[in-house]
Amino acid sequence: MKKIHPTAILEGEIQIGDNCEIGPYSIISGKVIIGEGTKISSHVRIEGNVVIGRNNRIYSFAYIGGDPQDVSYKGEESYVQIGDDNIIREYVTIHRATGQGNFTIVGNNNYIMAYTHLAHNVRVGSHCIIVNAAQLAGYVEVHDHAFISGLVGVHQFTRIGAYAIVGAGVKLTQDAPPFMMIAREPARVMGLNIVGLRRKKFDSERINVLRRAFNIIYRRGYSIPAALEVLREELPFNDDVKYLIEFFTSSKRGVLRRSSTDEED
Predict the structure, then answer these.
(1) Who is most buried in 34, 71, 117, 216, counting CB within 10 A?
(2) Residue 182 gets which letter from DSSP?
(3) Dist. CA 151–CA 183, nearest whole Å
(4) Which residues does residue 159 pair with via DSSP β-bridges, in sequence order?
């Protein structure tokens, strides 16, 4: 059973799953697949090559699948892929990728609040929260369980690690390391995201290992290569430590450091 309002406009190769709703004056065009149970409010615009999964909720005036805002884009065929159980609020914009066959990707169970912009080739993982008016430039990566506060601006190619929290109004031009709190101007690491980790059911042993990792990287005065060697030598080589090391070693823009003038937490 589908509920499509008579004022909605559907043009092109549109596939709509069971129990979907499309509200008044929404326009869907191109090659669009909408999964079962997804609800689209009034005045939503979806165009181009877009795949939307199951049980998403897309609010009024969201615009998904528009051409990338990229001067190198020459009309190549590219895509937006959105997973399941996402909430996409009013005036969110999610643009198609630049490059033939490339994707802008949003995973599952994300909450993307009003006026957020996800530019071309952005990749958002799962279980992320992106607060009002955050602006993610091209090729930004957001890993699982990250929290991006309101009015954050993220430079192209920058990454935000899993379980990181980026404070309101931050201008992010380098990678935000996983498990950490990012704040202030210029942006820097303020400490371990302990409250967020506890909310995500990290036990005390797991948090203590990450606390030790934070101290090694940010409080002992090591260079990054030296700090990563100490991580390998002094800490249990669990999945969190492996991920931290991989995140730092694979960075292209550099990873945020902690100012030497910051007070001890």
Answers:
(1) 34
(2) E
(3) 12
(4) 141
97 CB-side CA count, 13 A: 21
CB 145 within 8 A of CB 130: no
Q: pLDDT by residue (tens digit) across 12-68?
A: 999 999 999 999 999 999 999 999 999 999 999 999 999 999 999 999 999 999 999
- Give the model confidence (pLDDT) of 210-256 as tens digits: 999 999 999 999 999 999 999 999 999 999 999 999 999 999 999 99
Cβ(79)–Cβ(95) under 8 Å? Answer: no
Give the number of other Cβ atoms within 10 Å of residue 84's Cβ: 18
Between CA 98 and CA 8 the distance in angstroms is 29
Rounded distance between C-alpha atoms, residue 73 and residue 260, angstroms = 42
Dihedral over alpha carbons 57, 47, 43, 126 (to 10 degrees):
20
CA distance 17 to 70: 32
Q: Name the pairing type of β-strands 27-34 and 45-52.
A: parallel
Q: How are beta strands 39-40 and 21-22 bridged, if at all?
A: parallel
**Helix/strand/coil for 49:** strand
Q: Residue 262: its pLDDT value, please? A: 52
Confidence of residue 199 (pLDDT cuts 50, 70, 90): very high
Residue 245's SS3 state is helix
**Furthest-apart CA pair in the chain: how many Å?**
65
Closest by Cα among 92, 176, 175 to 134: 92
Place of tokens 């409010």: 41
**259 has pLDDT over 60:** no
DSSP string, 166-180: E-TT-EE-SBB-TTE
What token pair was written down for 41? 């409010």
Question: Within a 10 A sphere around the Cβ of 127, how many other Cβ atoms?
Answer: 17
